UniProtKB/TrEMBL annotation:
The protein's name in its UniProt record: Exo-alpha-(1->6)-L-arabinopyranosidase
UniProtKB keywords: Carbohydrate metabolism, Glycosidase, Hydrolase
Fibronectin type III-like domain residues: 574-644
UniProt organism field: Geodermatophilus tzadiensis
Keyword Nucleus among record annotations: no
GO terms assigned for molecular function: beta-glucosidase activity
Length: 743
């Protein structure tokens, strides 16, 4: 690794060249200080190193690399070791391909099931997204290859992504849309953070000082490079002032010239150029040594192993799965022969090889299995052919899903339905076959309605990467035991999704009207059942959960322990999901929020005690008055759940939390004054002293207080509060200010 080069002696113009790319994918060298050019390429689930010269976008002409399971699948693994091992392997390939920063992972929250890029993101839950992304970054950077956590922030749709303004209140940003970034930054120190294309509350993310400097650097301590998404810079000088270091790709020096002019005219402080150029130069620590090759066969095998941990067994009636090698199976559906394994757009990897599930199933069965594509030009004939095979089989395994053209970066979907021909195929096969298994391939979530009840088992692969076909065969035949869980709710109806009313916005704005009630948080709070809730996933074994203990270890911390026992006869991995539920505090809380999880391997009959720490943030909400995280004193239910809808065990704890005493002003309401722990009793005492003997009863006073409770004290005191001396009020204002303890 190269030490941080000293830029001090360089003229302004030269330093400014470091603030933008020299072409589409690399930074400029600065030979006089020994600074090499660095290559940044996509990411996130494999290296997309453009072949040939780097002057253009070249989405399709890329060097071969392993296509690992995309984030949609890694999200379903609930397993940071999957993310970490993918990061490590990508790091190895990047070094071999001469890449210094791989642009990933993406941690935007899946706000809507329609999000066109949901395949590239982990989850609708910020904890799950953050834990997995931090593991990916750790793995990749341990190989000496920088990461770029993206797209910061509130880039939750593709529609008008370069112009729309995400209108999000601060509590929602802090609780839902920022925590995954925060966790990656504070736990894994990524080399770069990529700002989003969109505006956030009216300001381009690339020019958003609050986001890029106050939150990211000052509050979270980020000291790496903020890089623009490709083409996200609108006003280069404003972006630099806001905290954006590196503009990508090259704009032929226009941005750098603008920066120089702005410094010369006094519009920009030269220190900003020094700081940003210095940070870009410090990326040289990722310059790496001589590139080694990578072992493509070993990485393919790794991709298969990891993919098996990502698929979700949604349904398995009467032990239909696993198949045995002598089960008479008919394989149906073009996706069995031509896998759909990754999403479209900038993340599209040129895979080193692709395993069709059909071949892998034949290998495991040890014989030829009949196959019919089921769909095609003459749909009816294709369907009839598939139905004939299904009728002769014991089990029909039908591969359906979304095609490449149905979803991609750059546009959102308009429906979650499977294509009609695929639904008809499933229904026709299910009517003919003794038993039917559906295998799903898709990036964004798909509806299971109209066919779900007619089939016996559903194995949801989402997108599993280049070795996904082999992994699906391993799972279908029981070589591997399914252990994935949904990282995104599968709703009954698209309309049930909490963001439905305001996605994707209109006339340049998208109002995040559901607030913090995103995904399962909204559905569970409203009591709307999903087809399959967030967190759902079956296994070929069974696990019993017992002996939950929740021990309060401080004012706002709890240790939860629970015993999990594999009660079946197969080894399996089990995810312990811990949620917290509370009504404490002055804000509406989601009914339940995921606050800790871990995946544990259990042999047949094995029992383990799992201990999970719930820190302060597991109980906190973002308080806009205090401008900080607050743990409200009160009761909190610690729930071990099978999924977001199903509580298995629950323990309630009482937390001391934070002193919520507010500073009172004359604009505080009468109710705030009277309920204030210090000022309230003093006021009551003052009032009681002036009251005649026949004053209102305490019950009448309570009704009165309710009636006038929302009046600002200023007006109450002026118009009705003659019994409240001004000097008393002034004294209490001063005392509450002095006594305030910030959370
Ligand atoms: C995408 C980024 C990507 C970049 C470079 C942009 O369009 O939003 O995720 O890293 O292009 O390909």
């Amino acid at each position: 690794m190269t030490d941080r080069p000293d830029l001090q002696g360089l003229p302004l113009e030269r330093k400014a060249t470091l603030l933008s790319g020299q072409d589409f994918w690399s930074t400029p060298p600065v030979e006089e200080v020994g600074l090499p050019s660095l290559v940044l390429t996509d990411g996130p689930h494999g290296v997309r190193r453009q072949a040939g010269d780097l002057t253009g976008m070249g989405i399709t002409d890329n060097l071969p690399a392993t296509c690992f399971p995309p984030a949609v699948a890694v999200g379903n693994s609930w397993d940071p070791s999957v993310a970490e091992r993918i990061g490590e392997a990508i790091g190895r390939e990047a070094r071999a391909l001469g890449v210094h920063v791989v642009l990933g992972p993406g941690v935007n929250i899946k706000r809507s099931p329609l999000g066109g890029r949901n395949f590239e993101y982990y989850s609708e839950d910020p904890l799950l997204s953050g834990v997995l992304a931090a593991a990916h970054v750790r793995g990749q950077q341990a190989q000496g290859v920088g990461a770029s956590v993206k797209h910061f922030a509130a880039n939750n749709q593709e529609t008008e992504r370069m112009r729309t303004s995400a209108e999000v209140d601060e509590r929602t940003l802090r609780e839902v849309y920022l925590p995954a970034f925060e966790r990656v930054v504070t736990e894994a120190a990524p080399a770069t953070v990529m700002c989003a294309y969109n505006k956030v509350n009216g300001v381009y993310a690339s020019q958003h000082r609050w986001l890029l400097t106050e939150v990211l650097r000052e509050q979270w301590g980020f000291d790496g490079v903020v890089v623009s998404d490709w083409g996200a810079v609108d006003d280069r000088a404003a972006a630099l002032a806001a905290g954006l270091d590196l503009q990508m790709p090259s704009d032929s020096g226009a941005g750098d010239r603008r920066v120089v002019e702005a410094v010369r005219s006094g519009e920009l402080d030269a220190a900003l150029v020094d700081a940003s150029a210095g940070r870009v130069a410090a990326l040289a620590r990722y310059a790496g040594g001589p590139a080694d090759g990578f072992d493509a066969a070993a990485h393919h095998a790794l991709a298969r192993e990891l993919a098996a941990g990502c698929a979700v067994l949604l349904r398995n009636e009467n032990g239909t799965l696993p198949l045995s090698s002598d089960t008479r199976v008919a394989v149906i559906g073009e996706f069995a022969r031509t896998p759909r394994f990754q999403g479209g757009g900038s993340s599209n990897v040129n895979a080193t090889r692709v395993d069709p599930a059909l071949d892998a199933m034949r290998e495991l069965a040890g014989r030829e299995l009949p196959f019919a594509p089921g769909v095609g030009d003459d749909a009816a004939a294709r369907r009839a052919e598939a139905v004939a095979l299904a009728r002769d089989a014991e089990v029909a395994v039908v591969f359906v899903g979304l095609a490449d053209a149905d979803e991609s970066e750059g546009f959102d979907r308009t429906t979650i339905d499977l294509p009609a021909a695929q639904v008809e195929l499933v229904r026709a096969v299910a009517a003919a076959a003794p038993r039917t298994v559906v295998v799903l391939s898709h990036g964004g979530v798909v509806s299971l309605e109209g066919w779900h009840d007619a089939v016996d088992a559903v194995l949801d692969g989402a997108l599993l990467g280049q070795a996904g076909g082999g992994a699906l065969a391993d799972l279908l035949y029981g070589v591997a035991n399914p252990s994935g869980h949904l990282a995104e709710t599968a709703p009954v109806r698209l309309e049930d999704s909490p963001s439905w009313l305001s996605f994707p916005g209109e006339q340049g704005r998208v109002v995040y009207g559901e607030g913090v009630l995103v995904g399962y948080r909204g559905l569970v709070t409203q009591g709307r059942p999903a087809r399959y809730p967030f967190g759902h996933g079956l296994s070929y074994t069974t696990v019993a959960t017992s002996d939950l203990r929740a021990e309060v270890t401080g004012d706002d911390t709890v240790t939860a322990s629970v015993t999990v026992t594999n009660t079946g006869d197969r080894a399996g991995a089990h995810v312990v999901q811990v949620y917290v539920s509370t009504a404490a505090g002055p804000v509406r809380r989601p009914s339940r929020e995921l606050r800790a999880f871990t995946k544990v391997g259990l042999g047949p009959g094995e029992s383990r005690e799992v201990v999970l720490e719930l820190g302060r943030r597991a109980f906190a909400y973002w308080d806009v008055v205090e401008s900080g995280w607050v743990v409200a004193p009160g009761e909190y239910a610690v729930q071990v759940c099978a999924d977001a809808e199903t509580v298995l065990l629950e323990e309630t704890v009482t937390l001391a939390g934070d002193e919520l005493a507010r500073v009172l002003t004359m604009d505080s309401s009468v109710a705030e004054w009277f309920t204030h722990p210090a000022a309230g009793p003093a006021l009551v005492e003052a009032l009681t002293a002036t009251m005649p003997a026949d004053a209102a009863s305490p019950a009448d006073q309570a009704v009165m207080l309710q009636m006038i409770g929302s009046m600002p004290m200023r007006r109450f005191a002026a118009d009705f509060g003659s019994a409240l001396p001004t000097d008393l009020l002034d004294r209490l204002v001063a005392e509450t200010a002095a006594a305030r303890t910030a959370p």
